[in-house]
Amino acid sequence: MFRSQYDTDVTTFSPQGRLLQVEYAMEAVKQGSAVVGVCSATHVVLAALKRSFSDLAWHQRKIVPIDEHIGVAISGIAADARVLTKRMRDECLQHRFVYGDAMPVGRLVHLVADLCQKCTQRISRRPYGVGLLVAGVDESGPHLYQTCPSGEVYDLVGMALGARSQSARTYLERHMDEFSSASREALIRHALWALNETLASAKDQHLSAENCAVGVVSIGDDMRFHLYEHEQVQPLLDACAFPKSGGTATETSTEQAPQNVTDSDEHHDATMQQDTP
Amino acid sequence: MFRSQYDTDVTTFSPQGRLLQVEYAMEAVKQGSAVVGVCSATHVVLAALKRSFSDLAWHQRKIVPIDEHIGVAISGIAADARVLTKRMRDECLQHRFVYGDAMPVGRLVHLVADLCQKCTQRISRRPYGVGLLVAGVDESGPHLYQTCPSGEVYDLVGMALGARSQSARTYLERHMDEFSSASREALIRHALWALNETLASAKDQHLSAENCAVGVVSIGDDMRFHLYEHEQVQPLLDACAFPKSGGTATETSTEQAPQNVTDSDEHHDATMQQDTP
Amino acid sequence: MFRSQYDTDVTTFSPQGRLLQVEYAMEAVKQGSAVVGVCSATHVVLAALKRSFSDLAWHQRKIVPIDEHIGVAISGIAADARVLTKRMRDECLQHRFVYGDAMPVGRLVHLVADLCQKCTQRISRRPYGVGLLVAGVDESGPHLYQTCPSGEVYDLVGMALGARSQSARTYLERHMDEFSSASREALIRHALWALNETLASAKDQHLSAENCAVGVVSIGDDMRFHLYEHEQVQPLLDACAFPKSGGTATETSTEQAPQNVTDSDEHHDATMQQDTP
Amino acid sequence: MFRSQYDTDVTTFSPQGRLLQVEYAMEAVKQGSAVVGVCSATHVVLAALKRSFSDLAWHQRKIVPIDEHIGVAISGIAADARVLTKRMRDECLQHRFVYGDAMPVGRLVHLVADLCQKCTQRISRRPYGVGLLVAGVDESGPHLYQTCPSGEVYDLVGMALGARSQSARTYLERHMDEFSSASREALIRHALWALNETLASAKDQHLSAENCAVGVVSIGDDMRFHLYEHEQVQPLLDACAFPKSGGTATETSTEQAPQNVTDSDEHHDATMQQDTP
Amino acid sequence: MFRSQYDTDVTTFSPQGRLLQVEYAMEAVKQGSAVVGVCSATHVVLAALKRSFSDLAWHQRKIVPIDEHIGVAISGIAADARVLTKRMRDECLQHRFVYGDAMPVGRLVHLVADLCQKCTQRISRRPYGVGLLVAGVDESGPHLYQTCPSGEVYDLVGMALGARSQSARTYLERHMDEFSSASREALIRHALWALNETLASAKDQHLSAENCAVGVVSIGDDMRFHLYEHEQVQPLLDACAFPKSGGTATETSTEQAPQNVTDSDEHHDATMQQDTP
Amino acid sequence: MFRSQYDTDVTTFSPQGRLLQVEYAMEAVKQGSAVVGVCSATHVVLAALKRSFSDLAWHQRKIVPIDEHIGVAISGIAADARVLTKRMRDECLQHRFVYGDAMPVGRLVHLVADLCQKCTQRISRRPYGVGLLVAGVDESGPHLYQTCPSGEVYDLVGMALGARSQSARTYLERHMDEFSSASREALIRHALWALNETLASAKDQHLSAENCAVGVVSIGDDMRFHLYEHEQVQPLLDACAFPKSGGTATETSTEQAPQNVTDSDEHHDATMQQDTP
Amino acid sequence: MFRSQYDTDVTTFSPQGRLLQVEYAMEAVKQGSAVVGVCSATHVVLAALKRSFSDLAWHQRKIVPIDEHIGVAISGIAADARVLTKRMRDECLQHRFVYGDAMPVGRLVHLVADLCQKCTQRISRRPYGVGLLVAGVDESGPHLYQTCPSGEVYDLVGMALGARSQSARTYLERHMDEFSSASREALIRHALWALNETLASAKDQHLSAENCAVGVVSIGDDMRFHLYEHEQVQPLLDACAFPKSGGTATETSTEQAPQNVTDSDEHHDATMQQDTP
Is the Cβ–Cβ distance between A95 and A103 less than 8 Å? Predict the structure, then answer.
């Protein structure tokens, strides 16, 4: 914690060639509630845990549609995400107006990434403290991208961001071979199972129609991004057949999830300590 | 109090990915006098405690109309609130001029939030030290929103901000199930009872026509924001049947308020110490 | 005095959510010589103690007319006040030119307050170190406002600013019930008696035609701001029947002022120490 | 000398509400050589001690004409004074061009003061380190003003600025009752006697046609500012009948000056130490 | 690590005439995964190790085409590289539009270098933390250039950048005499053998069709940059006849690589410690 | 050397009202090689010691013509001088173009001084580290001015700037009564004798046609500035009859120079230590 | 090395009137590889040691043509040199376009120097860390200039810059009398002999056609700058008859070089330690 002198000004490299401010901004991404994305050869699915800052507030949106064919899951500073997603919507609209068709997903993602990169090089702004999972389809098929505060972009088959996401990533890595050929329903189940892992060590929390959102977009005739929230989520959750609250969530999930989850649980304990959502 | 180096410049992330200046601005919101908002399926009610900086001054306005269908309750730095609310009025006027109808509530709230977010990312300005409860109706029904110095927005069924507001939030959380179907009169009583909780531990203070304001907006033919101040508030207070000053306020309120208020009183003592209104 | 790190830059919040630079600017207001304002249902009266920085200089103006119907009493940094009052005169002129009638008092006051607020949020300027008492009449009647370095505005029935003003405020609070129905002459006497209180503990100083100015504006046919200085003030002072210099000023004033002034004297001693005019 | 943190940036208030940089700029004024101004009902007289930075240099001008009817005496940083006086000349020219007559003295002085005030509020510039005594006549009679680095303006009957000016001010205060009705000649003598006081304690210095300048402007037909330098000053000095060098200057002056000068000498010793011209 | 005061601000020289911030940016280049370039009299070949930040992500592109005749291999901060390569593509397009033919390679490289240099001299931006190997052909033949964060440009016959690149450079230096007359196939083998050296000390890593990309551009009729990725790379790898995993990679490579590789291995150990990819 | 806090930023006054950065810039002037100027009623003469930074370099120009009637001698930072003299040439050209005649000398000097003053008040620039001796004639006769980094201007009969210039000033002060009526030849001799004083204590240095330049401008028909360099200087040096190298220069000069030079030598020793040319 | 406070910001003078940042930039010049320039009455010759940052890179250009009649040798930061030389080429082109003939050498040099000076006075940029030797001919004959980071310009008969250049300067000083009348061939030999001195103490380095470049420009019919590199240099080197590698270079050179080289060798040892090329 005493890495002074190089970490307060984003325009300064440390002697090791690192941009510490950017790395700290990535910590802000880790503090958001968990989001998960998975991509098959035909579909992309986003799943997100909606966190409510108070019992009196509606859960905040964690998955937001950008254009007909693109949706985004958010982890990090909500106000920064709103600014970026608004810009994404404007770019898509502008593209439709100018070219008469939908913005390719990769192009949109790189526009966002350029916005993020600029904030890491100019002294007048801080980096955006938000990570996005961008799901969309275009002529080249379905795509799942991740953007970072650093301006970097990753092309993914699956990813989990936010608090306690390490356990979700462990799940995804174990099942990634099954994604490519998975059906729409199977892919949604994978996303929800992975999301459920992030709650496995928290006794009184479990996925519900209230705290969970799912977004799906597919190739084919209907290339539209569908967002499932509230009661629409319940059938999807039911299809997962999570263990109901009884016994510790971790034990129960171990029984139904693939055999190697116990191994991932050990990672849980480590990540629990460093994540403070 | 020794969190130096990361907390003086709003554009700098701490190693934990936090923006401490924004968090400090939120403390400014806590120093304002209490405001309460509640939302039913048909109405939104704001109630505010007006604080006078001197016996010689008129009480400052804490609830201000923005447009015919929208009103705002303020907690935090009054001068910042004036700037934001003035901007909100301009935006509503502009919207009526351009589109010929009323600004949707959510759109207005996000405009304010974007203004707030910008101040957290540019080095030339400090964050706005004010929180707003925005009440309004539009075609999608009644809405209660909260804006924060961080630029975040919350969609709410009820909320209390400002000094000693924890006790009001406790009240609201206990009664939130009753809000949705509450009548106009019942909803006003809930707002005033919650507001009264913030005074419960202060012996010589109680709600009066002088220190209290109420704002109501409803769906239906008359979608106008009504502000009740001075003598107009008295009937509303009378309807609450608060205990008159006699005995300690805390004890008395316990008798008439729901049974679990004593539990909330324990929270009082904690919040009393950190709030210094 | 060791509140370092948060108090040198106006754009920075302290961890308690305070803007210390603004609070220090308010100290500059306290260092000005005393000004008093009182408002009845029909009149507003300003009274000010003119301080001379040398026997060789004419007393500086402390009450200045802004427009026909508005005048201002100043406490704080004179150069800042000159800039603000000049801007107020320009705004009034502009309003008469555009709308053909007099600027409403409240609107003018909020323009000033916005100027003050901007200086508290932008890093390129310090806050204005001046407080104004603004007296005026418009269609909604007589008004007395106070503006602060913070950009806050107060709507008042009476107020005293500047060095040793606490004793004047104590006087005003004791007599505030009499203001509303007071005649023009009675209201002027109240203002001068309150102003006299600020001198009560200074042995060789007393109000005189030289060091004192009075401004009056009334509703009715003649809605003009009248400024009384030099020999014009003497009749007003004579009407107050202050005790002539003989014995200590404090004792004498106690005899003629309301009975509870002795109580206020105890406050004197405290405020004397912190005020260093 | 350890008033750190609040005194290096002019835009920052100290916790006592002071602008220390402005106060330090006023110290620069005290380091200039002495200038004196006196004002009667009909005339204004400026007198200045010209200091030469080397025997090889001509004495610098300390009294400069601004317009036909206005002249200025300078104390402080010469380069700053040149910038301000040039601006004053431009404004007078502009006024004559636009309005066809002479700039009122007070208006010109307030233009200068506004320039000075701006430098105390913007972070991009330091305050002007110069004080001006402005002498002029207009339709409202003769005027003597002083401008300060703070942007403040004083309306004066007499004043002395610069090194060892305290003794001159003491002289002026003792004789100020005689100024109003003084003749042109008498007023010049007062100015030179006051100026001579600033040299009283310096053994080998005395007023001479070389180191002294006098400026006079009067009401009446000839409202022009007359500047007396070099040989023109000698008759004015002769009329003063100063004691020639012999014995200490202080003693001698005591004999011819009014009886209470010995009292002022005690002030000399104090001010000698803090003035380091 | 205590080289304070001169290394945090890029605009400041150290007393030794060094720009430490630029040197730290060069460290960022060393942290990228390895890239290799070799140039013969007729061909230029780029080879790169694609690193995946997660098993779930596709390997990031390390070799990107710029124009028909130019390609670039990247080492360092990916987001900075994306900004620079995008600018390069724009410049090539613009050149084709204006002049009707392909941008000369050297001219393009110097445009990039000027962008980099500007960031080392202006205070508002940090240096770009990326190094590029630029391969292209134009009328003057094949070219291999390296650009640096400092804005410097090198004209090369071979080069390796990034993590553990010292061992690759050692390989290139030993074989550089063979490059000039090497066939297309031989040159590709040299590039891959050099790239393989960077993995020699890492037990479980070896070049594969997944983690490796090759780019080739040649003079002659087809002056196009060809990029080989995924399955296209396998034949090229097969042609190298690397030892399959079995025994330590270092030992095996020693057997098949030129005789002096053991000597280079000693360099490995040194560079391993300072490289922390 | 511990005058911290007030001396690094030119826009900041020290508590004593001083601008230390400006004072340090004046030290830069003292580090230049010596220049001398003398002015009679009919002529102005500049003489300068040209210092070569290497035996391989031509001596730098120390006296430069500005316009037909004006020349300048430079002491301080050469690059700053080049910028200022270029600006002076532009202003003279512009004046000739607009008004059809030569720029008055005083006007040109004040333009330069204003440029210098601006740099002492704006935070974005440092003061110019150069002093100029400006020699010229116009309708009001011959003029010798000195400009300073502070923006101050001095009107002179003689002056010496730069390293070891104190001894030259001592010479000038002793002979200044002879300047006014001196002939062209006599005035040149005075300038060279004074310049020679600056070398008096340096054993192996003496004025020569190589290291010395002389500029002369006179009233009368030919009001042109004549610059004598190289072989043109030799006759002027010969006319001075300096002692040839033999014995110490100091002793020899004492014999031929006026009798009071020995007295000045004592000053030498003092100034030698503080000057480090 | 503890000259803090005055040396990090180029806009600040030290109390001794020095601009330390500029001095540090000059250190950057010393770190470049050596360049030499010599000027006769008819020719100017540049010679430079090309340093390769790797065996794999072509030697960087150290002598670059600017216009037909001007060439430049570079020592210092290569990227800064590229920016400056590009600007020089633009200015020459512009001059040819506007005036129809070649830019005078001195004028071009002063344009560069002004660019350098600006960077030493404005806070937004660092000084250029490069020194140039500019060789050219124009109507006034052949010219050799040196520009510095400070913005200073020197007019030279010979000069050496960069690492170990002290020994070359010693050579040049010993032979400077021979330059003026030297033939083209003799002048080239002087330049190469001087350049060779910078390698004298490095055992395995000697001038070769690979690491050495020569530029020549002459008056007469062909006023073009000729650059000799690679095989073109060999005849020039052969004409110098340097001792072949055998024995220490220093000893050998002593035998063939003029007799006083041994004396210069003593300087070698001193300069070796401070130069760290």
Answer: yes
**What is the distance in angstroms between the Cα of D157 and the nearest Cα belonging to chain C?**
5
Contacts of B124 in chain C (CB under 8 A): 11, 122-124
Closest CA to F141 of F44, F60, F57: F44
Taking the model in full, what pTM does it have? Answer: 0.80
For residue D150, the chain C residue with the least C-alpha distance is C79
Residues with Cβ < 8 Å from C32, sequence gap 6 or more?
C74, C75, C76, C77, C130, C131, C161, C162, C163, C277
- The closest of E149, E68, E160, E146 to E106, measured between CA atoms, is E146
Token duo for residue B2: 């020794």
Distances (CA, A) of E118 to A132, B6, E126, E128: 31, 29, 10, 10
Residue percentage of chain A with pLDDT more than 90: 64
Query: How many residues are listed for chain F in this entry?
Result: 277
Looking at per-residue pLDDT, the higher value among C18 and E256 belongs to: C18
Average pLDDT over residues C210-223: 92
**Angle at CA of residue D194, ends D189 and D197, nearest 5°:** 125
Please state, in angstroms and rounded to a whole number, the distance separating the CA atoms of residues B152 and B109: 10
How many Cα neighbours within 13 Å face the side chain of D71? 28
Query: How much is the pLDDT for G144?
Result: 97
The DSSP string of chain B is ---TTTSS-TT---TTS--HHHHHHHHHHHTSPPEEEEE-SSEEEEEEE---SSTTBPPPP-EEEEETTEEEEEEE-HHHHHHHHHHHHHHHHHHHHHHSSPPPHHHHHHHHHHHHHHHHHBTTBPPP-EEEEEEEEETTEEEEEEE-TTS-EEEBSEEEESTTHHHHHHHHHHHHHHHTT--HHHHHHHHHHHHHHTTTT-TT----TTTEEEEEEESSS----EEE-GGGHHHHHHHHTPPPSSS-HHHHHHHHS-TTHHHHHHHHHHHHHH---
Query: Is the complex ipTM more than 0.90?
Result: no
* Residue of chain E whose alpha carbon sits nearest to that of G5: E5
- Using a CB–CB cut-off of 8 Å, the residues of D that contact F are 1, 3-4, 7-10, 20-21, 24-31, 53-58, 60, 77-80, 82-83, 86, 119, 123-129, 276
Give the model confidence (pLDDT) of G127-154 as tens digits. 999 999 999 999 999 999 999 999 999 9
F226-228 and F212-218 strand pairing:
antiparallel
Mean pLDDT value of segment F98-109: 94
Report the chain D residue with the minimal C-alpha distance to residue C8: D12
Contact criterion met (CB below 8 Å) for E138 and E105? yes
| Whole-angstrom distance, CA of residue D62 vs CA of residue E115 | 54
Percent of chain F beyond pLDDT 90?
63
pLDDT tens digits, C143-170: 999 999 999 999 999 999 999 999 999 9
Those chains having 3 or more beta-carbon pairs within 8 angstroms of chain D are C, F
- For chain E, residues with pLDDT lower than 70 are 1-11, 123-124, 202-203, 244-277
Say how many C-beta atoms besides its own lie within 10 A of residue B86's C-beta. Answer: 14
Output the pLDDT for position E3.
35
- Helix H or strand E segment including A217: strand A212-218
Picking from G200, G225, G186, the residue whose alpha carbon sits closest to that of residue G38 is G186
pLDDT at G259: 37
Strand order in D70-76's β-sheet?
D63-67, D70-76, D130-138, D141-147, D153-156
Q: CA–CA separation, G231 vs G219, rounded Å? A: 25
In chain E, what residues touch G121 (CB-CB under 8 Å)? none
Which domains are delineated in chain B?
Answer: 24-239 (3.60.20.10)
The torsion defined by the Cα of D132, D138, D141 and D144, in degrees rounded to 10, comes to: 0
* Predicted local confidence at residue D17, as pLDDT: 82
Q: What average pLDDT does chain F have? A: 83
